[in-house]
Amino acid sequence: MALLEAIGIGKTYPGGVVANDGVNLVIEPGEVHAVVGENGAGKSTLMKILFGIEQPNAGRLLLDGREVHFANPREAIDAGIGMVFQHFSLVPTFSVYENVVLGSEPRNGIRLDRQRAIAEVQELSERFRLKVDPLPPVRALPVGQQQRVEILKALYRNARILILDEPTAVLAPQEVQELFVAIRSLVAQGKTVIFIAHKLPEVLEISNTITVMRQGKTVGQVKTSEVTEKSLAAMMVGREVSLRVERKQTDQSECVASVEGLRVVNARGTEVVAGLDLNVHAGEIVGLVGVEGNGQAETLEAIAGLRSIAEGTITIANENAASLSVLERRGLGLASIPEDRIAEGLATGSSVAENLVATRLNDRRYVRNGLLDLKAIKAHATKLIEQFSIRVGGPSYAVGTLSGGNMQKVVVARELCEQPKLLLVNQPTRGVDLGATQFIWRTITDARDKGAAVLLSSADLSELLALSDRLVVLYRGKIVAAFVNTPDLTPETLGTYMLGLSTQTADEMKAALK
Amino acid sequence: MMELFLTVFSAAFFVTVIRTTTPLLLATLGGLIADLGGALNVALEGMMLIGCLTAVIVSVYAPWYVAVAAGLGAGALLGLIMAFFAFRLKADIILVGFAINIFAAGGTVFALALATGGDKGTSINLPSKAIPAVDLSVLSNIPVVGPTLTAFLSGHSVLSWFAAFLVFAVWYFLYRTPWGLWLRGVGEYPAAPEAAGIPVNKIRTWSLVVSGALAGLGGAQLAMFNYVGFTREMTAGRGFIALGAVLLGARHPVGALLAALLFGAFEALAVVMPGLFNEIPAEIIRMIPFVVTIAALVLFSVRAQRALAMRGAK
Questions:
Q1: pTM for the complete prediction?
Q2: Per-residue pLDDT, A455
Q3: How many domains is chain B partitioned into structurally?
Q4: Which among B181, B310, B313 has CB closest to A98?
Q5: Mean pLDDT across chain B
Q6: How far apart, in whole angstroms, are the C-alpha atoms of residue A359 and residue B108?
Q7: Distance, in angstroms, between A268 CA and closest chain B CA?
Q8: What pLDDT does residue B111 have?
């Protein structure tokens, strides 16, 4: 008998978005069950329903063959379901054990029984091979360990079924392996794991069964042993996809941008970029590799002029740019696709047309005598919507009403409708579906082929490996390794350097740091 | 100058400091609990003021402890109303807080006029009661230190002793009980307790109710001990000073005590100084607590910034 079964689940959000439409899911006890699908396929909604955060409009949930309704997470937790979110639910200043027991504390009278809490966390941590020290505050721990704290939290509440929402998205390859060891140990001790993912090789490695979702529906449920990466990708997208990008031979002799001895200190006073030297040439894509928070984002922001620097020089197109404003830098041919499209890339309440012209308000084509030329702006937008195949009702629609992929296309269209000299890109396809990803990759590569120097940062190693000519690995704000991208460069090799486990010598780096 | 020195180091001045500190400390502890729960209570001022009037009016007809309880209850009720608007109706909590302050400023004068039969300034013609002082003159029987002990410890309001106990109680609650853990978790990162099945809004509602109750208690002390009777706008910004004291006290109960003592000491100074320096206008002297509040907050912020910079330089 199935342990957990969802039958005909339907969920329509207020506003008419159909997130789930007749979804079926059958989870057998003791298996690792992967749920895969593109962003927006309805995976997260389904999980929120299983965990009681959302209530379905239609369908039934069966646990151990009995029908259940979860009005809130507490009821799901009490029924033995635990969930680890992509964004961790941990209180940063609380210690590991405080976070684990929060909400179900061992008590001694009215007092929180610390000794028992610490002992229980230690015991769980050993039993399930999730090694973590119970005492330090969680904000002091690396992401991989924070994730273990989240899993311990669920186990502490006696979860039989553990839902992991894209657990590998934030991890370096080695940490992924450690997570998989823990998952296997969980299953060996009778737990059941539901694993949400969109990285197919990982899914194939860890799961026993796979449910594929597309556009709010379940496409099918398959045994992992019976599918390949290719057939799975086709099921997800509904057609054959190729995630390879053809790149032209380009002349990479001219240095477009360089930074020397760059140091950046963040608002908390921590040095986040520690003496960085880097050149980017016309016609090449340089990938900034690193676990998030090792200085990639700050480096890009410093070059774009969005963050003040503590020391060092920044040269763009042979001009000293360190003291120039953002607009002056853009005047030199800089374009930038920021990490967070909603917070930094777009004004979500404004229209698509307004967003597309926002960086050109000193251009006489769109603004004359201090007045906007609405006709020209609209024509510009109509042209770009067509050219970048942005799915939107029209130029006057608010950007906030678009899907993630289409929002990102608006940013890309604005930055790349004119060929830049230097392009800064951070997380270009985060939360973007496969179709739009392909399109954005193609657009960035086109800019490179036409002679742009591109500096790319991404949490997705496969993206960096697919696009980059050269890769530099950052660890704690320093370059610890550099590679010319070749087909035999693997994520595992990069991972060793990303985690700071080893460092190349200056000689080894030299070849790839021209 | 010498006179000022002698005054400041006298037992009588110490007793005055405790008296001026007590309402501030109660309001600061209230502000602390709400702030740690993530609900900034800018309505402390209004809650205190309504606490004052409620206590005074009830004390006309009932024993002092009933009046104190009424002041506390009035504050708690306002906390509940604030929570209802902020969490159930999703209004902006700062705006709700200011609405309560404005309501309190006008509403107390209106209610005062009704209660006194037309007096819009003071409750002078209402026979209101005072909170009794704790008489510890028995201590003077102790040899050598007895008289000094009596001078320092005797004559404080019952609520002053209670407030001192509350500092410990609040600390114990915040750092030793599961509910304190919940409250701090809710304030720092609500998603975490939410995922653990802790009812976030319920916790915040309770934090505002307790916050209001403590502010109301502070009001009762102000209108039934520091002064006996109600005067319009008698809280004179103490609720806002308390908000400052929460930050100055580094959001910790012991810090709150020290910050409240600091402000209380300067308020006491403003009370004794006019008698000593008649060439300085009394208005200037009465500004001292407020100037000190601003200066203390600026200094605190500068220090915090410098501490950050130091850590960065390492």
A1: 0.75
A2: 95
A3: 1
A4: B181
A5: 89
A6: 54
A7: 6
A8: 94
